[in-house]
Design goal:
Length: about 110
């Protein structure tokens, strides 16, 4: 699909320009960008289904933590702390902090 879009754009640019060339090139660029949006959105739909259970546990853990008053005495929770509390292999201290930032934006990475 993507290569087909590029092929059509390349074809239009390689041949004589006429009054339709600009519209056809722009339409194929738009089609390419629509495919990009589709593929981008699909990755989150897939991830959402896979991570739904852990995300709900994670959100509950953080909600409880922040409503308990612990942030003022213990600071922000680390990724390693979250992993221990959830007892989940998917949240190791080596996991890129992006996981936590996607869901909350409030958790500092482990050091």
């Amino acid at each position: 699909m993507v290569l087909d879009c590029f092929g059509k754009i390349e074809y239009e640019l390689a041949h004589a320009i006429d009054k339709h060339s600009k519209t056809l090139v722009a339409s194929n660029i738009e089609l390419f960008l629509n495919y990009c949006s589709r593929f981008y959105d699909r990755q989150f739909i897939t991830r959402e289904n896979v991570h739904k259970g852990i995300r709900e546990k994670f959100e509950s853990l953080l909600n409880n933590y922040f409503t308990s008053g612990k942030p003022s005495t213990e600071g922000l929770p680390s990724v390693a702390w979250c992993a221990r509390e959830l007892n989940e292999y998917t949240l190791s201290g080596r996991l890129h902090p992006y996981f936590t930032l996607v869901f909350t934006g409030r958790v500092k990475p482990s050091r």
